[in-house]
Amino acid sequence: MDYVRERSTLPWIHIAEVVAKEAIDRGFRKVGLTGTQWLVESEVYPEKLGAVGVAYARPNRSEGQKMGEIIMDELVLGDFRPESVEYFQAVIQRLKDEGCDAVVLGCTEIPLILSDKSSPLPTLDSTRLLARAALAHAINE
Prior knowledge:
Layout: H1 2-7, H2 15-25, E1 30-34, H3 37-41, H4 44-51, E2 55-57, H5 61-73, H6 82-97, E3 102-105, E4 123-125, H7 126-140
Parallel strand pairs: 1-2, 1-3, 3-4
Helix pairs in contact: 2-4, 2-7
């Protein structure tokens, strides 16, 4: 990644930094992470959230595996099942019970089935936030 950063003539906008900034701007203190198992077990979001003082909670291993299966086996194929929405809602509710005051929708497919209206917690839609940051940068150039 550093290679791309050094060689690119385009600005570097990090999706997790954009999400962390939005969390701070909206006053969130602890956010839950959702996404594929690889994402939620990585340090991508914890690193950037921690840098601005926002705590986080991850799904447990089985929840992460199940969310990854739903994303990769259903959502990327346009298969939106009510039971999968309910599963994400249950995981988010557990994260809320653990003290989270918002949830990161960390994969592009999750907003296809969840929003602020259907989530037990306010959402931080990483895809929309990144798109807005890129647009804001382009307008200010």
